[in-house]
Amino acid sequence: MTPSEAFQAELDVSRETMTRFDAYVLLLEKWTKAINLVARSTTPNIWRRHFLDSAQVFSYRPKGTTIWVDLGSGAGFPGLVVAILAAQFQPSLKTICIESDQRKVAFLRTVIRELNLNATVVSDRIENAAPVGGDIVSARALAPLPNLLPLATRHLKSDGNAIFLKGASYLSEIDEVKKRWAFDIQTFPSKTDGKGAVLILGDIRRA
Fold this sequence. Notes:
CATH class: Alpha Beta
Mean pLDDT: 94
Radius of gyration: 16 Å
CATH architecture: 3-Layer(aba) Sandwich
Helix content: 25-40%
Number of strands: 7
Low-confidence stretches: none
Oligomer: single chain
Largest sheet: 7 strands, mixed
Number of helices: 7
CATH topology: Rossmann fold
């Protein structure tokens, strides 16, 4: 089974969705030659390392989610992966990617246009962008939790959830952030990182 076939089997997505992901791969490979979108060492494992890793957050969206905000989207992880899955499973879901690097902004907009996704890009620093009011705010490999929560709450509805993909240090980050913030938290093991986790935070407030 090829990596793309394993990805399709894991997520049970349609052929149309796979066509979008195939096109995404080609755009990533093309643009990465010119700008630093993803580490060259990870491109052979893109289906699992980037696509499946990003896709796992989609199943955690609460019912009624209409606006998904992705912070520091970079190459589109997890924001554009969410948008591709939403095209099949929840077309009404709007994805908003916030990214300050102009070259990455151009890439994100190219993918959105060519794949016909229900998504937009805000070209600004996260802390400067006008508050979006997302039902969900996501981030992957962006910043430690103490630095991440002020950014997330700026763009999150008061009753929204933050979903973060975290590596091996997530427990120490949780301990550190609890010194200044209070929240409800659910922790799920990562499907792609044996030491990582998916964190879902709600009712976020300063302690």
